[in-house]
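ARCHIVE CARD
Drawer: 12
Card no.: 0347
Subject: one protein chain, sequence and derived structure
Cross-reference: see card 0346
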Amino acid sequence: MAKPRSVCIPVTAAELDLLPATLASVLNHTTAEADILLLAVGVDPGLLQKTLPEPDRIAVVPVTASADPWQAALREWSTRQARHDLLLLRPGMAVPPGWDARLALAAYRQPGVAAVVPLCDSVAFIALLGSIRPNRVTLESIDRLLVAHSPRRNHEIPALFSGCCYLQRAALRLIEPWLAAQSPLTTAEWCQWLAQTFREQGWQSVCCDHVYVLDHAPDRRRQEMAAIAALEDVRLIEQAHPLTGLRLVIREGLNQNPVTDPGSTAPPPAQLHIAHSWGGGLDYWVRQYCENDRARTNLVLRSIGTWGAFGQRIALYRSAVMDQPLRYWDLDYPIRATATAHGQYRAILHEIIDDFGVEAILISSLIGHALDALATGLPTVIVAHDYYPFCPAAVIQFGEVCNQCALPRLERCFADNEQNRFFRNVSATEWLSLRRRFARLAAAETVRFVVPAPAVARHWQILVPELRGKPFTVIPHGLDFAPPRLPAPAPGERLRVVVLGSLAPQKGHALLEQVLPLIAARVDLYLVGCDEDGETFRGRSGVTLIPRYRHDQLAELLTGIAPEVGLLLSVWPETFSYTLSELWLLGLPVVATHLGSFADRIEEGVNGFLCEPQADAVAARLLDIAADRACLTPIRERLAHFHHRPVAAMVADYHALVPLPVFSAPRYFRTQAAVPPPPADANLSRALHIDVRAPFSQALREFGEYAGWKLAATPRLRPWQKRGLTVLLRWSLRAMAALHRIRPRPVPGP
């Protein structure tokens, strides 16, 4: 949390000519958290008020003419601003962006810091450039280089700087009795006396190496600091200056390129995605987000495991590059589904947050993770791709859409629900405990819920009463898929219908089995991307199977089919459906079940058709369309102008939901980039992830690719051995695939 602070600028009659440049710099570069006070030391306050560029933001305070600038600022703090930290700034100083916040970060980075001064070339013991000043050097160019190369360290100093100084209110309160009793001092005496008094109370004064201020009146400041420059302690510092290395780096950078941008002023904010390694739409969303986020560093923490223990290894990946982990940890105590609490997992989270400067967390899935991810204290977003962890099946469908799930129903779900097949070794009682802690943590102020469609929020609030008072933010998924529109199909005797995507149970496999006999006389079905779940329909009259396809070839594939309508038969309330968006982008009207996001996104007769998830209703709708193809024409015309929101717009909505500060300690004080660049060597060790939901043929193919790559990469085998083993591997994989395709013969009856 930002500390309240006041910027005090004491102005004497002799400094009026220096004030405009300082005010312009302060107004442009001071954060909104700081108050700005202009102390009129023997100057007409009304005159100052008239010359202010932003009078609403600056308060003008009259001060007696006899007061020293430092005395005036300290007196004003004690009278009016004692709850604020004090930032003393003198006319003639120009400051960089966020200077006040950066000085505050330096003050609170370590305990016992009473005062912080920036680098400035007006005084030798805090000088950065000294007498060497390359041509055309600007404050901005110095600051960018400094922020990029500074190690972010505080160096103890024997006295303060008269031109700019940050003073902690706790330290000032500690010495306030001495402040009140102190006789008048010169500016140099104040700089020395304050530092000495702080030391006597156990506090220190420091110079931070990551803020530089430019003095437009350096000669004046040298005169003020002359007595301090002669101190023995200052001379000792100058003989072995702690900034020597940084000085050389900055001077070299300025000599090479004094005007162009030498790089980013600070690392971008880092946020951590928490997800499983099962692939599917969730994995697609995470990858799309990471690839399109240009403003933040995105790390991905994935759980890796086997059936029955989905969190055996926790791996951290760089952005959307999911092949080579940055780090991984093997859990001593594996996580079966989601752990209610897990000490080792919690330690891993804190390690990542500390080492990589993570400032926000986006949770896409908690499978294989622990609920500790919701309790870091960081801004946390739950992205509701499904209904996990409330629902162990993730789809809230058990014969019907679930509106409640007490213990008896949950026990039956574990025993009888074919869609609840992943967590058989977890009891219903354990799951209730998991639900209770999840609801408690999700209701916290630091946790936000994002849903891709309003229906998702309604279902969550029905199922989890603790969340009914919590706001849900609707952020539809983005999609950059931009295929050419399919040409208008020529209607034939039979209606051509494409079923795009998986035919898993929740996607309507059983419903399609019931619908098929009712439409067989009038409809041709094309099952595209159905994978092995569509094999039960192979050989059926009027059904064509295309188990797999490449995404970039979808438009070409469907052009050859020339479908007239798409069909989506999900029996669970979909949270979004990329497939619906893709069909619309291709220009295809869609018939879908009246559930979840379909009901939110489809307007009956305008951009598609809705029907109840019942065989008779679906069949009746398709037969009506087959009898009157003209009803498709106005929908197709509207879809010709349909454009899906891009992924970049979605990412911007997430940034707006969780804005991260321009300057923050976890990011700002990283001494080097936390996230290394992608490895240049493509032959680094790869990781193999098993998607438990993937068809056997896919898992076999992925394993073959991985094993083949490992054979080729190993240095311990001779070329002839590699060739022989590669042939053996190829034949073994073919044999396993063939065995998998053999269907057992039915056993004859008695």
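Annotation on reverse: Residues 495-639 form a domain with the Rossmann fold fold (CATH 3.40.50.2000). The CA atoms of residues 188 and 228 lie 7 Å apart.
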